Amino acid sequence: MQVTKEIEKLFAVSVATPWIKGKMDVDAHNVMIDIPNTVLFGLVPAGRRKHTTPLGNVSNVYTSSSYKLGRMLGGLVLCLLGFSMFGESFLGGLIILAIGGLVIASGIITVFRYENNGRSVTIPLPFFEAHHAQDFADKVIAQINKYNDDRNVFINNQLSAQLINNQNVQSTQQIIEALKNKDS
Predict the structure, then answer these.
(1) Where on the tree of life does the source sit, at the highest rank (predicted)?
(2) Across the strands, what pairs with 22?
(3) Which residues contact 9 (CB under 8 A, 6 or more apart)?
(4) Which of 57, 66, 106, 112 might form a disulfide with 133, Cβ 3.0–4.6 angstroms?
(5) Which structural domain range is residue 175 located in?
(6) Residue 5 has what pLDDT?
(7) Separation of alpha carbons 36 and 47, rounded Å
(8) What is the CATH number of the domain that holds 136?
């Protein structure tokens, strides 16, 4: 079960290298990001972004999908160039075609985003991580709600009063049972 939880925290950052993963996690106190940056249309991982944000500073958590038409058109041009090269150099055309396909795919982006004290933190991810990113956003929102509920004095006072009331009812029932047993 622990292995599954660790896998759930790993996110691919590039269409070209889906085996290179970053980690995003949330606990009762922080949102933790440790993910590679990418260059060349989001195809090549380069560098690393690592930071931790306290849950109390996190707001407006969401995911979105977008299409970078410039990338997609550039990839389409590369694909057409690759097809036209097949007659001269099949291998060269195939390589250019593959690069074009990757550039087109990198034009479909899923973004996980939240605000840290009003400053937007954006994590771009490949399109195939959309569902995974939404699940992570839901986990972050659930942790924020729990964090806020734990600090809500009114709710905590209501819960404490209910607990005391339940204990009083239980004590009263025990006294009544003891008196009934004494009379018998």
Answers:
(1) Bacteria
(2) 11
(3) 23, 24, 25
(4) 112
(5) 152-184
(6) 61
(7) 6
(8) 2.30.29
